[in-house]
Design brief:
Number of strands: 20
Bound molecules: flavin-adenine dinucleotide
Oligomer: single chain
CATH class of the largest domain: Alpha Beta
CATH superfamily of the largest domain: FAD/NAD(P)-binding domain
Number of domains: 3
CATH architecture of the largest domain: 3-Layer(bba) Sandwich
Structural class: alpha/beta
Distance between the termini: 35 Å
CATH topology of the largest domain: FAD/NAD(P)-binding domain
Length: 453
């Protein structure tokens, strides 16, 4: 039997989080190996080439903001193209079978009464942000919010109507999760940690003001810097461990290290047999930390025809027709390019269909919003992330009621030789590419601090 490959630390997962953790360790003089199940790096960032556009497009993470400091630094380091979000013109809102248009900063079609209720509910949400302590799992308010789903909380503060529907969109829009399956505390603290929904949805100066053309290039750049330390097509299949040593069996041989960082979702960790088993609290946590659902389409047209109608391509829906659509053509395009997101409930309209059905569902919604020209694209790309063996859902894992108050304090604590990364481990920008980097950095710091003792 071949000798195991030996390193100080093994990182499982070559997404942004795992690669960033490995880079920090390598730069500090530690030896590392990053094991990646797929034959590519980047995880939930995936940037195929568009022959029509002559550049890369994004089927996963794409929007950045200057407050995503780590991500922004890497985007500059690896020279990934960044474009301002196009916003000139009206946006569209689909509500049931009706389509409304109106300026950015409004929800087109919403009555004055519903808008007042919506604004009031936002005030309540921001008051909860203030009232929760820095450790969001502590105190009576946290306990109350963790006993209910986000859906129950919204129903408590808003009567039926378009305002309630709009607030119920948030879990799908930001975390690909249904409002009735996520803890109110978990969702609210995630929104708070990402700057709040006003900042997150702001396409002019906030969280959606800039997008990349080829986010996967950040991971590819880090993998180049890690040189021969990244092992593709190397899924971790079995883990044998003591307090001081770990051996990992993969499809490409054995790896041994003093420490391991898991930079993949708990659902993926759960598929790996551990010998001996992980302690019960950690195993039970992984069982209660499932993935959401995100599907994303990129559709390329001969021209950005919606701009000719005074539309900026920004589409939302309060009734679950889609999560959002945005124009990613750039400032002065020849061709037109749109993305359409189907997350949480909206993904259930698309995911169960066959390929032809998925395509006609996506194009059908776009034609309802932008006009019949939407039915004749030059290119159509769709990534249903829940179909992916090594993602198994999408965006970011989330916690069901009762878990954050129970496990919050221990979430990032190491267990024997094991450390935990991935965007779901971040306190700030959880569910974002920035959160993935922050969590990778935190796991690397834990290891560097332990090595100094
Ligand atoms: C459709 C969509 C749109 C998004 N939009 C944005 C956006 O606009 N802005 C933003 O900031 N973020 C966005 N995100 C979220 C962002 O892409 C993710 O938060 C981030 O990329 C997660 O990185 P990660 O390293 O934590 O996890 P992942 O990218 O999931 O990486 C985990 C890696 O582990 C590997 N792996 C799993 N199991 C094993 C195993 N047993 N052995 C070895 N390897 C394994 C996987 O193959 C994967 O490569 C979006 C996500 C999606 C899906």
């Amino acid at each position: 039997m071949n000798e195991a490959v030996r390193r100080d630390t093994i990182v499982i997962g070559a997404g942004l989080s795992g690669l960033y953790a490995a880079l920090q360790l390598k730069e500090a003089g530690h030896s590392v190996a990053v094991l990646e199940a797929r034959d590519r790096v980047g995880g939930l960032t995936l940037s195929p080439h568009s022959p029509t556009l002559g550049r890369r497009i994004d089927l996963g993470g794409q929007w950045v903001s200057k407050s995503h400091m780590r991500m922004y630094r890497l985007v500059e380091r690896y020279a990934v193209p960044v474009r301002r979000q196009f916003v000139t013109g009206d946006r569209v809102c689909i509500h049931d079978d009706k389509t409304f248009r109106g300026p950015m900063g409004t929800i087109p079609g919403m009555s004055k009464t519903d808008w007042a209720a919506y604004t009031e509910a936002f005030k309540t949400l921001y008051q909860v942000f203030e009232a929760l302590p820095a450790n969001p799992w502590e105190g009576d308010l946290a306990a109350r919010l963790d006993r209910m789903t986000y859906d129950s909380w919204v129903r408590e503060i808003l009567p039926p109507g378009m305002a309630r529907d709009a607030l119920l969109r948030l879990p799908g829009a930001y975390y690909g999760v249904m409002p009735e399956e996520v803890s109110a505390l978990e969702l609210i603290q995630k929104l708070r940690g990402c700057g709040g929904p006003r900042f997150m949805s702001d396409v002019e100066t906030g969280g959606m003001s800039e997008h990349l053309w080829g986010a996967q290039a950040v991971s590819e750049g880090m993998a180049r810097d890690l040189e021969e330390d990244v092992f593709l097509g190397t899924p971790a299949r079995r883990v044998t461990w003591t307090e001081k040593a770990v051996e990992i069996e993969t499809d490409a041989g054995r790896f041994a290290a003093r420490r391991v960082i898991f930079a993949c979702s708990p659902a993926m960790i759960q598929q790996i047999p551990f010998s001996p088993a992980l302690p019960a609290p950690r195993r039970l946590l992984h069982q209660r930390f499932p993935n959401g659902r995100n599907s994303k389409a990129v559709i390329v047209y001969d021209r950005p025809f919606w701009r000719e109608k005074g539309l900026n391509g920004h589409v939302i829906s309060t009734s679950g027709a889609l999560t959002a659509a945005l124009d990613i053509s750039g400032a002065d395009p020849g061709h037109g390019a749109m993305i359409a997101l189907f997350s949480g409930k909206a993904s259930l309209r698309v995911d169960p269909l066959d390929p032809a059905g998925r395509r006609s569902a996506v194009l059908g919604v776009l034609s309802q919003a932008l006009g019949p020209e939407a039915l004749a694209p030059l290119e159509f790309h769709l990534q249903v992330w829940a179909d992916e063996e090594w993602s198994g859902g999408a965006s970011s894992p989330f916690m069901v009621p009762g878990q954050l108050t129970q496990y919050g304090a221990a979430l990032r604590a190491s267990v024997g030789p094991f450390h935990w990364a991935g965007t779901h481990m971040a306190l700030e920008f959880r569910g974002y590419m920035e959160g993935a980097l922050a969590a990778g950095e935190a796991a690397a710091r834990q290891i560097l601090a332990a090595a100094e003792i």
